[in-house]
Amino acid sequence: MSDASLRTPFTLRAHGALEDRYLQEALGIATTKFIDLRKEAFADFPQGEALRDRARAIKEGTLQQLDRHLERLADNVERLGGHVHWAATGDEARDIVLRLCRDKGVRMAVKSKSMATEEIELNDALEAAGVKPVETDLGEYIIQLAHEKPSHIIAPAIHKTKGQVADLFSKELGGRFEADPEVLTAVARKELRQKFLDADMGITGANFAVAETGTIVLVTNEGNGRMVTSLPRIHVAVMGMEKVIPTMTDLMVFLAILARSATGQKLSSYTTLVRGPRQPGETEGPEELHLILMDNGRTRQIAGALREALYCLRCGACLNVCPVYRQIGGHAYGYTYPGPIGILLTAMLKGAASVKDLAHASSLCGACKDVCPVRIDIPRMLVDLREQLDEKKIASWSERMVFGLARRLMVSPSLFGLGAALGRIAQRPFLRNGRVRGLPLFFGKWTRTRDLPPVASRTFSERWKDLDPP
Amino acid sequence: MTTRAEFLGDIRREMAKTRGLFETLPAPRPADAGQAAEVVRRQMLERWLQALERFRDEFERIAGVFHRVASLDEVPGAIGRIARERQASSIVSWHPGVLGVDLRQSLGREGFSVAIAPDADPDVAERLSHRTAAAVAEIGVTGVDWALAETGTLVLVSGRGRPRSTSLLPATHVAVFARDRLVESLEHVGIMLEALHVDPARTMSGAVINFITGPSRTADIELTLTRGVHGPKEVHAIFVEGR
Q1: With an 8 Å Cβ cutoff, are B8 and A285 in contact?
Q2: Structure pTM?
Q3: Rounded to a whole number, what is the distance in Å from the CA of A470 to chain B's nearest CA?
Q4: Most CB contacts within 10 A, which of A1, A405, A441, B192?
């Protein structure tokens, strides 16, 4: 999402989402369905828990030797006839794609769904350079036609009704289409099939890349990943560098848990392992393969507070279970990556200051950590992030003042006692039915939606003093 | 422009700050991949029948259509039936050298148009004409490298005479396999792929390995499951019992 829309404060964006009745209903249905599907998939799969531990260990082990694995990956991709590009920033990654387009006379590029290219806002850059980018995942295609942004990592258009999609297709593609998913899917199939055959370049992300074999791995359900890597004459894969894994054996561990976490499938319909461009004797495949390894703020976290976020597989499971995401959906987060993990990834890519509001858009309930296939401790990192925001004085002055005062009170027993005594008096006008309600000033933000338990008439420490020592 | 050395240098500098982390070892993997693959093959000689039943269950659960024929000779007949039921007249197929059966003779005689993938190094014109044939074909017939029982997955390795688009462009994909292709688990596939990559030049001529688990699907419009969005709407597996 462009930075302009981020000028709207998060609270307003969230309010907008809360008032959108269709979004509320769609979010409720979608997230509940994904939660159930995931639960069933793991209930049937006793080895799943041990595989999650192994997957986590593989991610950590890879990170501990990241330089070696990346070198190995690059060497193998080049050995197979591919080209490897190193992009320290998102700008650089975008420039590499644009240069390739210019040098190779590319007019149209078909894309399979990729969060990495969303992250660098590649489509806008391509359009500005006169290259037509065509999203081919059905959900992404819909939102591209509507000039919107994805609202869910794996179901980008869940915020749209079939009626809206039918109107959109009728308007953009010419014709009159029935509001039936079957019909609309057939329309998209026909429309996009020709694009696959005509495009000069296919652009993908990468779910994994196997260092030892130089293999780029794409997981899709629709088959667009296969089209994009088979039909155009150039294939460009843009990959966050943390997606590298060591071996084929490791890949199987991830495949066993990825689809189960995302959609509750045992495997997605298509897992595509790409090893270089078209090989001698093959009838199809691109003449050129380019792998762009992108850093874009990731290296800073190798020794940083968000290290574990580098394990993320982008499955979307943590979005579905998050009580905040379930209410406000993906758009309100404002950046490419929504949901609990999205807050951490945004902080990683855009700096901690970019999430000074979002860091609080979590109840720290821990549901995200429970479902994460690689058990990323998201709540712990969110707390760390809040601490950083406070220490770096990024958080608002009122927040810092309140918490600063609270800290002073809590570290000094005498001040704490005094505070309790004062609180007992100060709370009196606001006590209703044994709860503190309707506080004035900015404290009112808290009590508008929540009750505060009052200070007890006699606190524990006061009663403790009265006890007879044994 | 960032060079490889700069990019890796940045990473190494940050990695140096993390010394003292509890060391995590890589996942265990077969020491001798070729030997491990041989062990799996031997196991499957004993266990193929259970694996086949599991494959069938899982394959049907994801909307695959399972067929069983006694020998390779019956394969063209089975494909002809599938084609006629769908009122399809054009078929594209892997080369007989890899498929084990030549569909041109039998099905060609019955009036189907059958396009066969070239197996010698194809030139640009041949490649283009095959692509056009695959793009208009209604039925695509392939072999199978591994049939994975636990998920009902067909694993196909691309290469000479085995184009990747045969299982992608036509609306119906028909895969033909025998018992020696069955494996039980993703772990087994991992072992096979480790072995395949020990010397890929010898065993693998193509660039792509596809795991195909049922038809192409999407649920992007109101979470309504719809099949055949870009790839095939139907996937059939023909199991060949004997030679």
Answers
A1: no
A2: 0.93
A3: 46
A4: B192
As a whole number, mean pLDDT of residues A346-371 equals 94
- Yes or no, beta carbons of B213 and A269 under 8 Å apart: yes
How many CA atoms lie less than 13 Å away from A302 in the CB half-sphere? Answer: 26
A72 touches chain B (CB under 8 A): no
Q: Nearest to residue A269, comparing CAs of B59, B122, B110, B5?
A: B59
Q: Does A182 touch chain B (CB under 8 A)?
A: yes
How far off is chain B from A2, nearest CA to CA, in Å? 24
Give the best residue of B208, B210, B234 to mutate against chain A (max A CB count within 10 A). Answer: B208
Q: How confident is the model at residue A5 (pLDDT cuts 50, 70, 90)?
A: low
Domains in chain B: ranges and CATH = 30-79+142-240 (3.40.50.10420)
Domains and CATH numbers, chain A: 45-294 (3.40.50.10420), 413-466 (no CATH)
Residues 6+ apart with CB under 8 A from B50: B149
pLDDT tens digit string along A107-151?
999 999 999 999 999 999 999 999 999 999 999 999 999 998 888
In chain A, what residues touch B10 (CB-CB under 8 Å)? 88, 295, 299
Task: Give tens-digit pLDDT for A66-92.
Answer: 999 999 999 999 999 999 999 999 999
Q: B117 CB near a chain A CB, below 8 Å?
A: yes
Task: Describe chain A by its helix, strand, coil percentages, rounded to 5.
Answer: 55, 10, 30
Task: Name the token pair of A46.
Answer: 């006793």
